[in-house]
Design goal:
about 325 residues; mainly alpha; about 80% helix; about 0% strand
């Protein structure tokens, strides 16, 4: 962007003129302002789920300036939105190596690295990921997601890799004090992982809803629970409440669609998958389920289109299976 353009965009107040003069005398500052403006626009693209466009622009930026840590962080977020977890982990790691550190960046790296690695490889990196979760919690002590991630590491890891059930329990107990609905939700999720009796799981989640009747994660989990226990009426009720509590969460519509599909209400299930994709066009699970629906009802053209979109925009998502399905449909 030319300096004259910066002049044009600045206020004509005394402060605006002074800022422009400073920019003229300091070309580096002018470039920084342009870059900050560009990144602000890219952030809006990511928030609007326009991940592919954001990714292309960010790749150009980091090619020009490989030490631009903030751009690497945003590149991680764009790739994570496209379900390219391996690429996202690499971008987040680059930002961390360049000295950038904040709680969302650390959470993004932990999640992307965890989802891109095999179970065996994950064990080798588990100690490093746990340390990052500890640091993320230090930066944002009240974040439910980080506390849950760290508690899971303490619960699951063997002691020689830093597992510590006492620390895990303490984290969840603290969360119950800070935010009871979140705390009891996590207790229920943990009880489910440990295959504890159903009444124990349900008691935790019912307690969470007593503290917050609109707690989205609990409502969604109860929907999933009742689907698994062949009670579609209850499941649909919880999903509807979850949608009311957070109408822009594509995961709820995905779960809702699966609930309808389980009782052979295929058209209603497809409507839910389409809604999820309207919210997030790169939501791979929703697109895969919608492609399966079209394949099931015999609409080959639509099924092929959605599988091809997955292969293009979410290349790491079930790649071998999608290639196999495409070969079968196109032959």
């Amino acid at each position: 962007m030319k300096i004259s353009t910066i002049f044009h965009n600045l206020s004509l107040s005394g402060v605006g003129i002074l800022s422009a003069l400073l920019l003229l005398s300091n070309p580096a500052a002018a470039c920084a302002q342009v870059e900050n403006s560009e990144l602000a626009e890219i952030r809006r693209q990511i928030e609007g789920h326009r991940y592919h466009k954001a990714e292309l622009r960010l790749e150009e930026i980091v090619e020009r300036n490989t030490a631009y840590a903030e751009a690497w962080e945003l590149l991680g977020a764009a790739r994570q939105g496209r379900w390219d977890f391996s690429g996202a982990a690499a971008a987040y790691r680059k930002a961390l190596d360049l000295g950038r550190e904040n709680a969302p960046l650390l959470r993004g790296w932990i999640e992307s690295e965890g989802r891109s690695l095999s179970r065996v490889s994950l064990l080798f990196k588990a100690r490093r990921l746990k340390k990052s979760a500890i640091r993320a919690l230090e930066l944002d002590p009240y974040n439910v997601e980080t506390r849950g991630i760290l508690a899971a590491y303490y619960y699951v890891l063997p002691r020689f890799l830093g597992g510590d059930k006492q620390k895990a329990n303490r984290l969840v107990e603290e969360l119950v004090e800070l935010s009871p609905a979140d705390g009891y939700y996590l207790l229920g999720a943990r009880a489910q992982d440990e295959k504890k009796p159903d009444p124990t799981i349900l008691e935790y989640w019912e307690t969470a809803l007593r503290y917050n009747p609109q707690h989205t994660a609990t409502l969604r989990s109860l929907g999933l629970y009742w689907i698994g226990h062949d009670s579609t009426v209850l499941a649909v009720d919880y999903y509807r409440r979850a949608v009311s509590s957070k109408p822009d969460d594509p995961w709820i519509y995905l779960s809702f669609g699966r609930a309808y599909r389980r009782v052979d209400m295929d058209k209603k299930s497809a409507e839910q998958f389409k809604t999820a994709l309207e919210i997030d066009p790169f939501f791979a699970d929703a697109r895969f389920n919608l492609a399966e629906y079209y394949e099931k009802v015999g609409d080959k053209e639509a099924a092929i289109r959605h599988y091809q979109t997955l292969a293009l925009n979410n290349p790491t998502y079930r790649s071998a299976e999608i290639r196999k399905r495409l070969r079968r449909l196109i032959r």
